[in-house]
Structures are given as structure tokens and as C-alpha cells.
From TrEMBL:
<dbReference type="InterPro" id="IPR010102">
    <property type="entry name" value="Succ_semiAld_DH"/>
</dbReference>
<dbReference type="InterPro" id="IPR050740">
    <property type="entry name" value="Aldehyde_DH_Superfamily"/>
</dbReference>
<dbReference type="InterPro" id="IPR016163">
    <property type="entry name" value="Ald_DH_C"/>
</dbReference>
<dbReference type="InterPro" id="IPR029510">
    <property type="entry name" value="Ald_DH_CS_GLU"/>
</dbReference>
<dbReference type="Pfam" id="PF00171">
    <property type="entry name" value="Aldedh"/>
</dbReference>
<dbReference type="GO" id="GO:0004777">
    <property type="term" value="F:succinate-semialdehyde dehydrogenase (NAD+) activity"/>
</dbReference>
<dbReference type="InterPro" id="IPR015590">
    <property type="entry name" value="Aldehyde_DH_dom"/>
</dbReference>
<comment type="similarity">
    <text>Belongs to the aldehyde dehydrogenase family.</text>
</comment>
<feature type="active site">
    <location>
        <position position="256"/>
    </location>
</feature>
<keyword id="KW-0560">Oxidoreductase</keyword>
<dbReference type="GO" id="GO:0005829">
    <property type="term" value="C:cytosol"/>
</dbReference>
<dbReference type="InterPro" id="IPR016161">
    <property type="entry name" value="Ald_DH/histidinol_DH"/>
</dbReference>
<dbReference type="InterPro" id="IPR016162">
    <property type="entry name" value="Ald_DH_N"/>
</dbReference>
<dbReference type="GO" id="GO:0009450">
    <property type="term" value="P:gamma-aminobutyric acid catabolic process"/>
</dbReference>
<feature type="domain" description="Aldehyde dehydrogenase">
    <location>
        <begin position="20"/>
        <end position="478"/>
    </location>
</feature>
<dbReference type="InterPro" id="IPR016160">
    <property type="entry name" value="Ald_DH_CS_CYS"/>
</dbReference>
<protein>
    <submittedName>
        <fullName>Succinate-semialdehyde dehydrogenase (NADP(+))</fullName>
    </submittedName>
</protein>
């Protein structure tokens, strides 16, 4: 089982109003290791009643939390950040056990997740307002920023820590209180974070974590008029549903939804750099990130060379258990995930795509899939439209810049896009016309706490991280002072 330096980080209870509690009916759900299906732990199967209590606690805790100075909230967030780094190894072990990603990637995610707490500890002190020159001499106009209030967060399994801290960091910095429902596959990472939050001095009710029945917890959070904001990362399908559920109470929304990232390689690109970027953007987390390249659009003149170089690089990936030394690709999260990847590859091959390497389940069995490159892929195939969420790189061919742009934008999604070129004019032309919230130019890695993360079109609403991230948890209040 899990061998931790600090075993108390392995929490198997909900954290509500500063208490570690089970479900009212004492039911639990197992948490499984995707590498072998073994049960690692079990967590409460909570629902609406427990959620309602967390909402009451968050509402009760809000006035005192918002009344603290920004510097006080900042110190608590910084302490939480420091505790995450002190326990980086244990947190990474918990993550790899329940999520499957290689341990080195899990350690990296813990540092990345912690960086959001550090960043927003700093930004907490910079929620500046405005003084606006008045149109009349007897008036003064000011704008202040105030916390939104009680917030709810629903997070996915692919980044079990970072998707939490980039919501909790700005929410708590702004003076909001937050109730979190983590993904059912990865509750242990969330509960370990709650344990560290408690140690850091986050007061009861300011940050609660509820595990259990997604639709019951989500239903209660979205229906409550007390909850003023929902922040969600996950599929477009569930995001759409939650948005509907939030409509009657007109909640503020931040939605980080699906993507269909194009990765464009122009004839003039530095091919080795493009391959390195492709590896980072495609095969990280076994392809299970919303900013993973989903479609490689490669110009005719370098198509064959890029395919060959990419296949050579892919051959260096080491597939195995995330805890094993040197492993760079773990298992997929579960059986439905691998079935989807398999069917997308089958559909592409049936319509004329060619397997350059990989293409099937890995000999290790379970939910391991071979790192795969497909050539001669066309826009009519399902991989062109659907998020693969697996280690498969489909290569499409294009001839002109206009054709590449048209293909890149031909999707309902608009999260991340990447392109490689050494032509500075093209850099500005293409980046200006890509209908995406984030564009990587000659890089395959774009995520950092200092930059605004988010998408357009069906990829969502709002931005996380950067100085803009704090605004998502604040309301503007306009003060007009007359009769001077
Ligand atoms: P993924 O495909 O990444 O699992 P989902 O959108 O299904 O994406 O899941 C993201 C998060 O949304 C998870 O925490 C999941 O439990 C939650 N979720 C799924 N269905 C619902 C629902 N009906 N109400 C509230 N939360 C939900």
C-alpha cells in the first residue's frame, strides 16, 4: 500500500466545517489504483445533506474571513504553499497511486499546484480599485473590489492538485469561502490538500471538501442561492449541464472545458524543436490534458520528415507503472478512457489513416496504450473533432497558411493552439487569427501560474492564474459620492 513519510496525509473522510466526517449513511466508495485496479482507500459517499451543511458553514465563515486583512489571508496561503512543498514527495505518491501519472510528473504537478497558492498569496494584497475622474465637479467616483461570497468548485482527475489550488488560491485570497467536490477518481489528493490547509490555519468553513455522489453534490451546490459562484474544470458536456443548473440563481461562472488543440508545423519550422514541443504537449500525462495537442497540422514540405522524427522520439518513451524508475507514460485513468482511444484509432484506420507507430493496447495490459503516431489523417475522421485524451498523435497534411488556419479553427473548441515557424510575419498573422484563448508559439508548454489560462467558444468562460485570476472571485462596487 501507500508508504508515506506522514501517513496522516492519507485522509479517508470529508472535511466539512473544519471536521473530518463520514457520510450520514456511513456509505463509502473505493479509490482505485489505475495501474492494477487495487483498492487504495475508501472515501465517504456523501450527497446533498452533507453539502447543505458545508454551504451553511461556508456562509457562516465568510464574514470573518473577508474581514481579515489581505496580508493575514496572504500569510495563511503562503503557509499552505510551504506545507505543500514540505510534503511534496508524499503528495506526489498519493497522486501517482490514484491517478497513474509518472512520479516525476506528479512531483512537478505538486510544485505547479503550490505555485498558485504562492502567486495568489502575493496577489491577495493587490486587489486595487480605481478612482475615476468625475464628469461633474461636485462628485467623486470610486471603484472597490469585494469578494463574491460563498463559491463552489468541481474539479477533474487529470490534475488532481493543480486544478484545486488554482481555484482555492484566488478564492481564499479574495476573501471568498469555497466548497470543493473533487473528481471521484482522485479524492485523496484533494483531502491531503485539505489536511495541509487545516495545518496552515485556514479557519473552519473557509475551505471544505466533499466526496461522493457527483450529481447530488453538484445539484445542491448549484441550486443553493447562498453559493454565488461556480468554478468548474471538466468536460464541455458537464460544464453545459452545470451552467444550466446555475441559471435560476444567476451564479457567476468560471468554466475550463474541453479542447481540440491544433499543433501547426510550417515548412520553415525548426523541426527538432517542433518534435520536442510535440512530445511535451502530446504525451505528458499520457495525453490526458485539456491543452494536449489533439491535431498535428503539418505542411506538405516537412510532413514526412516530421512524422519520422516524431516516431523516433516516441520510441524513447518508457511505458509502465508511474512509480517505476524512468517511466514516462503511465496507464490511462480507466477502461472507458482506453476504449475511447481505441475506437478513435480504429475509426481513423478504417477511413485510410496509417499507423506510423503504436496503435493498440500495450502488452502490459490494463489501461496502458502504446504511444501512437497516425499519418494521412483527414478532417472527416472522428479524431479531428473529438478530444482524444490519450497518447495518440494524428498527423494532418496542409499546403498553405490559409488552409492551416481554416483547419485549426474548424472546431467548436478554443482552448490552446500551438504553432512552429521562424517567419516573424507569420507569427503575428497566425497568432492573430487563431480563435483560441492561449497560443504557444515555438513552444509546446504554456501552463504557468503567472499567465491567464482559459478558452473561448465551447472551451469555457473566465481565466485562471495571473493577476486576472483574482478578478474571477471579486465583484466591482462603484461608489458615487455627490454633494461635495
Ligand atoms: P472527465 O471526462 O474529465 O471525467 P467530467 O466533466 O465528467 O470530466 O468530470 C469533471 C468533474 O465533474 C468531476 O469532479 C465529476 O465528478 C464532476 N461531475 C460529473 N457529472 C457531474 C454532475 N452531474 N454534477 C456535478 N458534477 C459532476
Amino acid at each position: 500500500m501507500l508508504n508515506l513519510n506522514d501517513p496522516s496525509l492519507l485522509r479517508q473522510a470529508c472535511y466539512i466545517d473544519g471536521q473530518w466526517v463520514g457520510a450520514d449513511n456511513q456509505e463509502t466508495v473505493p479509490v482505485c489504483d489505475p495501474a492494477n485496479g487495487a483498492t487504495l482507500a475508501s472515501v465517504p459517499r456523501a450527497g446533498a445533506a452533507e453539502t447543505a451543511r458545508a454551504i451553511v458553514a461556508a456562509e457562516r465563515a465568510f464574514p470573518a474571513w473577508r474581514a481579515r486583512t489581505a496580508a493575514e489571508r496572504s500569510r495563511i496561503l503562503r503557509r499552505w504553499y510551504e506545507l505543500m512543498l514540505e510534503h511534496q514527495d508524499d503528495l506526489a505518491r498519493i497522486m501517482t497511486a490514484e491517478q497513474g501519472k509518472p512520479l516525476a510528473e506528479a512531483r512537478g504537478e505538486i510544485a505547479y499546484a503550490a505555485s498558485y497558492l504562492e502567486w495568489f498569496a502575493e496577489e491577495a494584497k493587490r486587489a486595487y480599485g480605481d478612482v475615476i475622474p468625475s464628469p461633474s465637479a461636485d462628485r467623486r467616483i470610486m471603484v472597490t473590489k469585494e469578494p463574491v461570497g460563498v463559491c463552489a468548485a468541481i474539479t477533474p482527475w487529470n490534475f488532481p492538485s493543480a486544478m484545486i489550488t488554482r481555484k482555492a488560491g484566488p478564492a481564499l485570497a479574495a476573501g471568498c469561502t469555497l466548497i470543493l467536490k473533487p473528481a471521484e477518481q482522485t479524492p485523496l489528493s484533494a483531502l491531503a490538500l485539505a489536511d495541509l490547509a487545516e495545518r496552515a490555519g485556514v479557519p473552519p468553513g473557509v475551505f471544505s471538501v466533499i466526496t461522493g455522489r457527483a450529481s447530488a453534490i453538484g445539484g445542491e451546490l448549484t441550486a443553493s442561492p447562498v453559493v454565488r459562484k461556480l468554478t468548474f474544470t471538466g468536460s464541455t458536456e458537464i460544464g453545459r449541464l452545470l451552467m444550466q443548473q446555475c441559471a435560476p440563481t444567476i451564479k457567476k461562472l468560471s468554466l475550463e472545458l474541453g479542447g481540440n488543440a491544433p499543433f501547426i508545423v510550417f515548412d520553415d519550422a525548426d523541426l527538432d524543436a517542433a518534435v520536442a514541443g510535440a512530445m511535451a504537449s502530446k504525451y505528458r500525462n499520457a495525453g490526458q490534458t485539456c491543452v494536449c495537442s489533439n491535431r498535428f497540422l503539418v505542411q506538405d514540405g516537412v510532413y514526412d520528415a516530421f512524422a519520422a522524427k516524431l516516431a523516433t522520439a516516441v520510441a524513447t518513451l518508457k511505458v509502465g507503472r508511474g512509480t517505476d524508475e524512468g517511466v514516462t507514460q503511465g496507464p490511462l485513468i480507466d477502461e472507458p478512457a482506453i476504449t475511447k482511444v481505441e475506437s478513435l484509432v480504429a475509426d481513423a484506420c478504417a477511413r485510410g489513416a496509417r499507423v506510423v507507430c503504436g496503435g493498440k493496447r500495450h502488452a502490459l495490459g490494463g489501461t496502458w496504450f502504446e504511444p501512437t503516431v497516425l499519418a494521412d489523417v483527414t478532417p472527416t475522421m472522428a479524431v479531428a473533432k473529438e478530444e482524444i485524451f490519450g497518447p495518440v498523435a494524428p498527423l494532418f497534411r496542409f499546403h498553405t497558411e490559409a488552409e492551416a488556419l481554416s483547419m485549426a479553427n474548424d472546431t467548436e473548441f478554443g482552448l490552446a493552439a500551438y504553432f512552429y515557424t521562424r517567419d516573424v510575419g507569420r507569427v503575428w498573422r497566425v497568432s492573430g487569427q487563431l480563435e483560441y484563448g492561449m497560443v504557444g508559439i515555438n513552444t509546446g508548454l504554456i501552463s504557468t501560474e503567472v499567465a491567464p489560462f482559459g478558452g473561448v467558444k465551447s472551451s469555457g468562460l473566465g481565466r485562471e492564474g495571473s493577476r486576472h485570476g483574482l478578478d474571477e472571485y471579486m465583484e466591482l462596487k462603484y461608489l458615487a459620492m455627490g454633494g461635495l
